[in-house]
């Protein structure tokens, strides 16, 4: 398993600083919402940090008591924001 994770790390590293949105959108999936998470390029360094942590966990060398992983990978959701203003009985929406 560790060898597989090391191989994946090498592949990710070879992609440069980012994995493009175009490449992320080509990932085969049966989850219809999966691709909505990737609307911006993905930092490869952040993915590598995750794989490094997994390797350490498998090797038993994880030096932390918490299993939280500080990563800059954030999913951006496109949620419409409705602004409104109500005056007495009538309301107007932007």
How much strand? Answer: 5-15%
The oligomeric state of the chains shown is single chain
SSE order, as H and E? HEHEHEE
Largest sheet: 2 strands, antiparallel
Number of strands: 4
Q: Kindly name the structural category.
A: alpha+beta
Helix content: 25-40%
Radius of gyration: 20 Å
Strand order of the largest sheet: 1-2
Mean pLDDT across the residues is 76
Q: Categorize the overall geometry.
A: globular
Low-pLDDT runs of 5+ residues are 75-94
Distance between the termini: 53 Å
Q: In DSSP terms, counting alpha (H) and pi (I) runs of 4 or more, how many helices?
A: 3
What are its keywords?
94 residues; alpha+beta; two-stranded antiparallel sheet; two-stranded antiparallel ribbon; 3 helices; globular
Put the structure in a nutshell.
The chain is built from three helices and four strands; from the N terminus they run αβαβαββ. It is α+β, with helices and mostly antiparallel strands and 94 residues long. The protein has a two-stranded antiparallel sheet. Strands 3-4 form a two-stranded antiparallel sheet.
């Amino acid at each position: 398993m560790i060898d597989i994770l090391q191989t994946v790390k090498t592949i990710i590293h070879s992609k440069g600083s980012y994995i493009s949105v175009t490449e992320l959108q080509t990932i085969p999936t049966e989850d219809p919402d999966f691709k909505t998470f990737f609307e911006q390029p993905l930092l490869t360094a952040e993915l590598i940090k995750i794989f490094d942590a997994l390797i350490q966990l498998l090797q038993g060398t994880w030096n932390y008591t918490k299993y939280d992983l500080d990563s800059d990978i954030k999913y951006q959701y496109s949620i419409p924001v409705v602004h409104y203003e109500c005056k007495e009985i009538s309301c107007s929406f932007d």
